[in-house]
Amino acid sequence: MAANLQLDEDTERTMKQFREFLLSYNKLSEMCFTDCIHDFTTRKVLDSEDSCAKNCMDKYLKMTQRISQRFQESQMMQGPDASLLNKQSQSSGMFG
């Protein structure tokens, strides 16, 4: 019985993380599309649009990575007790 409850909690957590991932992905796609795609007179993606979209995604991913790195560094500086508390709170978040 306890194993089923744990499985349900794990499944729910996994589904929540996947939903958050999809929301982030959709937000990024919409943002880069809006910023980069302007010519709707052709079915082909122009080289300039392709380059812009790639740069947009690269910047977003690098920014996300840098924020995550800085967050981890600040947690390490606060000490092991703060790290433990944040790991517990992150387990319900996107990266937990």
TrEMBL record:
Molecular function terms from GO: metal ion binding
Claim: Protein transport is one of the keywords in the record: yes
Highest taxon in the source lineage: Eukaryota
InterPro entries: Mito_inner_translocase_sub, Tim10-like, Tim10-like_dom_sf
Disordered: annotated segments: 72-96
Domain notes: The twin CX3C motif contains 4 conserved Cys residues that form 2 disulfide bonds in the mitochondrial intermembrane space.
One Gene Ontology term from the biological process aspect of the record: protein transport
Family under the similarity heading: Belongs to the small Tim family.
UniProt membrane topology term: Peripheral membrane protein
Record-given protein name: Mitochondrial import inner membrane translocase subunit
GO cellular component: mitochondrial inner membrane
Polar residues bias (residue ranges): 85-96
Function: Mitochondrial intermembrane chaperone that participates in the import and insertion of some multi-pass transmembrane proteins into the mitochondrial inner membrane. Also required for the transfer of beta-barrel precursors from the TOM complex to the sorting and assembly machinery (SAM complex) of the outer membrane. Acts as a chaperone-like protein that protects the hydrophobic precursors from aggregation and guide them through the mitochondrial intermembrane space.
Keyword Zinc set for record: yes
Alphabetical UniProt keywords: Chaperone, Disulfide bond, Membrane, Metal-binding, Mitochondrion, Mitochondrion inner membrane, Protein transport, Translocation, Transport, Zinc
Complex formation: Heterohexamer.
Subcellular location: Mitochondrion inner membrane
Main location: mitochondrion
Organism field: Paralvinella palmiformis
Transmembrane segments: none
Residue ranges of domain Tim10-like in the record: 15-73
